[in-house]
Amino acid sequence: MTKKDRTARTETESTPSSPAKARPTSASSKSTDDAAPLGNKEYEKALKKLHVELVKLQQWVVHKGLRVCIVFEGRDGAGKGGTIKAITERVSPRVFRVVALPAPTEREKTQMYVQRYIRHLPAAGEVVIFDRSWYNRAGVERVMGYCTDAQAEAFLRVVPPVEKLMVDSGIILLKYWLEVSPEEQTRRLKARFEDGRKIWKLSPMDLKSYSRWFDYSRARDAMFKATDSKHAPWYVAPSNDKKKVRLNIIEHLLAHVPYQDLKQPKPKLPKRQDRGHYREPDYPYNVIPAVH
Asked: How many domains are there within the chain?
């Protein structure tokens, strides 16, 4: 997709006018199941093209000193981590910073709630991606009883003006909610039991929260109703198909952060210096065994 195409899409894409229209549901996430799944070869080809565009975006962000903040939220197993990895695997970690905060310390618990998040907001030339964010208070904290309903409601009242301040200051704020069906969530969480590469993803909190699907649905609905604003709308991404949701979100990201291709001359490797009097030393290096 060309930059012109993305601009046209941005101009014609409608922003959810109300939480009811934008509300993610199991039905919306299952709608992607009707289409044929994306093959690995097709996926890698599409992702490679998008990675080239992300590099162009990165260069433009640095060149113009843009500040971009991307929030990823969604149910456990919705695919947030894989999507973030797809975005960041070919760009510089000095420009694209991923923030995934642990549980608050005792000191942080005494601070204003958003305080520990604000210090991670982007400076000029940065894209900051929150793998879960201040919206923890509207989701897991509320559902699992780590905050009171009164604290959650107070948080939801405060968020829109805080995000308005962020946007008014020049930050480009994008908020993505990944919605997975209950059946697909079950399949993915079970897979973590059986795959030694994924077992670290399964936390005690995942097991505790798994049974509370509809409590999370209610919390999500309340969050959308309070914080799906014109200046910082939520964008819902059905994520039953991991490959498609990654491509769709990257396409959307590229369409919503204005950038241009900074034409640069093709680099050319200079000639290496002559060996001169240098000789390889006879040194007993500790060489790792060649087992493959």
From this structure: 1
